[in-house]
Amino acid sequence: METGPIVRALLHHKTGTFLVALQIAVSLAIIVNAMFIINARIEKMNRPTGMDVANLIAISIRSTGDDSDGLADIRRDLDFLRYHPDVDQATVINHFPLSGSGSGTGLRTLPDENVTPTSTARYQLDEYGLETLGANLVRGRNFRPEEVQMRSPGDEPQTAEVVIVTQALGDELFPQQDPLGNVVYWGNMEPATIIGIVDHMQGSWVNWDGLDRNLFHARVSAQNFVRYLVRSRPGRRDALIPVLESELFKLNRNRVIREVSAHEDIVARSYELDRAMTNILIAVIILLVGLTALVITGLASYFVSQRTKQIGIRRALGATRMDILRYFLVENWLITTLGAIGGCLLTVGVGYWLETSFDLPRLDWRYLGASILVLWVVSQFAAYWPARRATNIAPAVATRSV
Amino acid sequence: MFAYYLTNAIRSMRRNPALTLLVVAAIAVGIAVSMTMLTVYYVMASNPIPRKSEQLFAVQLDSWNPLRPFDSDRPERPPHQMTWRDVNALLEAGYASRQAGMFEAELVITPQGENQLPFEVSARVTSSDFFPMFEPSFRYGGGWDRQADRVSAQVMVINRKINDRLFGGEDSVGRRVTVNGREFTITGVMDQWEPMPRFYDVIEGGLDEVSEVFVPLSLTPRMKFNSAGSDWGWKPEPIRSFEDWLNSEAVWLQFWAELPTPEDKAAYQAHIDAYVMEQKKLGRFERPLNNQLHDVMEWMAYHEIVQKDVRVLVGLGFLFLVVCLLSSVSLLLTKFEGRSGEMSLRRALGANKTQVISQNLIEVAVIGTCGGAIGITLTWASLNALGAAITRAPQALFEIDTTMIVTAIAVSVCTSLLAGIYPAVKTCAIAPAQQLKTQ
Known about the structure:
The complex is a heterodimer of chains A (about 400) and B (about 450). With about 400 residues, chain A is α+β, with helices and mostly antiparallel strands. Chain A has helices at about 5-10, 15-45, 70-85, 130-135, 165-175, 235-250, 265-270, 270-305, 310-315, 320-360, 365-390, 395-400; strands at about 55-65, 85-90, 105, 120-125, 135-140, 150, 160-165, 185, 190-200, 215-220, 225-230, 255-260. In chain A, strands 3, 4, 5, 6, 7, 8, 9 and 10 form an eight-stranded mixed β-sheet that branches. Chain A is elongated and about 105 Å long. The two termini of chain A are about 30 Å apart. Chain B is of the alpha+beta class and about 450 residues long. In chain B, strands 2-3-8-5-7-6 form a six-stranded mixed beta barrel. In chain B, strand 6 and strand 7 (about 180-190) form a beta hairpin. In chain B, helix 1 (about 1-15) crosses helix 13 (about 355-390) and helix 13 (about 355-390) packs antiparallel against helix 14. The longest helix of chain B has about 35 residues, at about 355-390. The two termini of chain B are about 30 Å apart.
């Protein structure tokens, strides 16, 4: 094999070789760490929501005066929404899941102030709430109509006596027992019985590690603000949005329809920064790989033109086209590999910096392997075209220019 | 001579257009990527009110649950917001020359005239001192005075956008607007005022826009303004009415004091500590005494306004610039090596080393200037693209100012010098006859 002469030739161009290898090394460090971050963000954005997000419409309304009868308005709005032919189901809800806006509470398993409460997001909705969300009630039962607390401003405070929890919240509260049928205590130590378990649903705050811990109780509360969640029939969502907006306003002109939008858009807004980060890093990787490939091609072309005579001589002495092609590809492979070895060290360094300064999880080694593979393939491709040109140099060139 | 070198440089660049373009592109992309990241970082980390940032203090009182701290991960931290009761007590006591309590609300404006629909505006409910403390610029009029605070006058400040919408942009001071069903009188119209970050309220991250209107805090009980920001409670208290809510231990207001000198700060700290000790006698504030004052930049650091992601991106951006730099060096090295014959010839014909080197340096300078100019243009374009992608943040986050343009120019000059000097000098280190011999 001809690695000996190749290495010796490279040693003649120490600086150039070193520079390209170093460039590959730094590129590798960036690519590996960027891919790692990208993958974490994509996984975060693709977590199952446990809801029928694609068909949900979020409606937010506010009354302008303080003289309106909130509960009557809500009943009329819900009647209209539920009887609309394109609507599958509708509910009133205190906050939209995955919107970044929500209500949190702490629950205890004993009526004792010294027990640390388990924090959870809290959703108040009516007996059609879970159906509207598309949440999967796996065990126990749904709320009964008579369990829905109808509340107007000024009413005596009242906690819910029955609640439904997600499996994640149930496990957190009762790690050793079956949460179904168990009793939890609100902040004022009033008890509530868990009557149902939803297998999985995401709550309000996408960056919170308790995103899967959610609590539901049945309440319709008439306030200045009212929010509805509507589940449209499949495929009807986008057509339904403007209709609902104008019809709801017609039902009572004395209010501001703040928002009628696809729940999907609200969710997308919550992940906007994650998506931006992902896109920026993808752009950086593309630019980096493109630049590295172009530089390799540029340098290889230059070397080919420099060595025209040498190649001619080798061809005249009996080297095949294949030999010439192999020479340049092996040379390129050696430089890339040298860079990759240096890159491994740098990657670990950058990874360590990210891990310690930004609490990012430790780098997964598979990314390093994958990135080295990508760099090998890209650099071989980049070197291939100039090398092909080298094979076309006729043996006669050697004789001609002397 | 310079002109001759320049023509030579351009001729040389045209001889190897692919290599030349590649170097220009490498420098341009390197600058664009690193400067884009740096600009966002710079805006986030910038001092939003340089002249007064060391005189304005966010005030925290630890009124939280005696059984556990507000932030269990950082138990030394008191709640970042205050109760309505404490805000009013501190405002009334007047321990500082200027103080402002505040919270964010959403109000409904009903425009006059038929067919005009009511619309919602974001509002900062705050004290009259807000305006002299934070110094927003006014187009017409100004803030309301302390007397208006005392009598809970229905007065308001609106921003330019709302003034354009309601009054077609004319001077609307003294005009009336219906807010939540009541008549308010306008005292001032704000000019463009976009402090970045929005330092006076960073509870939700500080990237939010400044409110569209401002109304007096003392109107809250009468108008029943609800907070649109976050509220935190720890004490189980029955809330039957708005009054119950105001008297609760829930924290939902921010509080600022203007303390021009360190003595003022020390005195203020003593005052609020004494206030809390007094309250302890009434059975409130059962936690150990822990009242804190943070000036503007300390408060920004406390809330980690510069997000981790941005810092990661700045780091990766500069590593990217290193890659571009390395590419440029190796490409230029190659390019100049290819010319060693020509250089030997010129040396042999009498050009001295300095002359040959300056010839190369001029070529590098031309390449660097092109790369830098394209790079800065690309920076501007990518910042615009980011601004379009991240709708949640105000556009001020993605604006490049003079400082950053100067920085960008400096970075591109340094980059091209770093990229060019070594190849330019290295390739000249040849004996005049060396390269001629082989020809």
